[in-house]
């Protein structure tokens, strides 16, 4: 019975994530890769139906959370891009009118005189109200779901809250804490209470900002960004031609890239889906979403092992908290003053690699291929289906939870421990374990220990990597692709750019 229910939960989960398997009408807000809002990515009203079957004799005793910050406004650099788009669109309309190529109905009304909603803003990247709500509500659901874990009075050692040294992550931690401890304090009508959020310095945060402290990764990323752009080009070219004939405006590829960016911001932040998003048809949206997902795959995901191996210290930290919780639990310390939950707030660059360490979102035999150190194919191009979707893996407020359970055997009082893995609050099967309720020893032996050999300081020391500088040559799609793949296995030096999501 238990097994059967687990299997049902697993299949429901797969159905949820194989896009459009559920016959819902197309909604562009679910196809925005990592710009997708949490409520568009996960149906939070329906989470109970995904609970896995946990035996009655098992109680949650500790929880590890790592969450991405919530929905945020565009960064300063992107606000500037939208300001440039305003000028470009005005020029295109003017050209069309002058050349008499415009038959009025083909130019969408909103384009005439369009101004960026973020026009003239000199600050960006902050958590917006929608983003606060995402984390606040997540906290209320987590507290409801695990009352055993959150029943204790607040103490910073029982419920440590950590954020990266980036304001939108710290604000996300505060929004979460506000929900988690609401009604438990004395402050104001909401009976709030103060709690602490601690950040490591940016320069040394290898647990949550490993992507910014790992030199090997930074070299890889900087040297491969241009190649990722090259991979996207054919799709953008094709859509650019389609848009030119559809709307009689002489778009360039860069205009279309900016319009897709605008579409994502409008749809996600403002719920406007009939302006920039309305320029594209459904097929084109699927393709644009795929190009974003390719980038996530290659620069943050399974595309290269350094992308996720550098996240091993985070996994190790979680493993250690679980070992300590088990020990404290076994020793039955007086007063029960030991850590119950460790709550972390970070970035897509943290969540995506962490999900890869657990082996999530793979296809077919890909987990075995990773074990044999074989490289994976790129996520298949639409209309083919795929598991690798930014909108599922790392939407705003996307999260992973590892919940430690103690199971008591009634006969002999002995305990066994299990780890439940939740992704965006839905139980997920660990390929290494074959279940979403993994015996702690199996989790240790098959997931954690094999990864510990990738020691952060040695894999991240750029000097240890052979440098070879590739010269990109013009070539066809397939040639670009093979160049890209060969490039994946080398690393080149270039300058630093910080564009975390
Ligand atoms: C969308 O536009 C493309 C051209 O980019 C065209 O080939 C395709 O048939 C259109 N799809 C739909 C569903 O209208
Ligand atoms: C508990 O587990 C240990 C080791 O597996 C075993 O030797 C022992 O008999 C079990 N029962 C009790 C009551 O300790």
UniProtKB/TrEMBL annotation:
From the record, give the cysteines joined by S-S bonds.
Answer: 58-407, 263-277, 433-438
Alphabetical UniProt keywords: Cell membrane, Disulfide bond, Glycoprotein, Hydrolase, Membrane, Signal
Q: Which residues form a coiled coil?
A: none
Q: Give any GO molecular function from the UniProt entry.
A: inositol phosphate phosphatase activity
Q: What Pfam families does the annotation carry?
A: His_Phos_2
What is this enzyme's class at the first EC digit? hydrolase
Q: Where is the signal peptide?
A: 1-23
**Cellular compartment(s):** Cell membrane
Which reaction is catalysed here? 1D-myo-inositol hexakisphosphate + H2O = 1D-myo-inositol 1,2,4,5,6-pentakisphosphate + phosphate; (2R)-2,3-bisphosphoglycerate + H2O = (2R)-2-phosphoglycerate + phosphate; 1D-myo-inositol 1,2,5,6-tetrakisphosphate + H2O = 1D-myo-inositol 1,2,6-trisphosphate + phosphate; 1D-myo-inositol 1,2,4,5,6-pentakisphosphate + H2O = 1D-myo-inositol 1,2,5,6-tetrakisphosphate + phosphate
Q: What is its main location?
A: membrane
Fetch the InterPro entries from UniProt.
His_Pase_clade-2, His_PPase_superfam, Histidine_acid_Pase_euk
An example GO CC term for this entry is: plasma membrane
Q: What is its EC number?
A: 3.1.3.62, 3.1.3.80
Which top-level group of life is the source organism from?
Answer: Eukaryota
Similarity comment: Belongs to the histidine acid phosphatase family. MINPP1 subfamily.
Q: Which protein, by its recorded name, is this?
A: Multiple inositol polyphosphate phosphatase 1
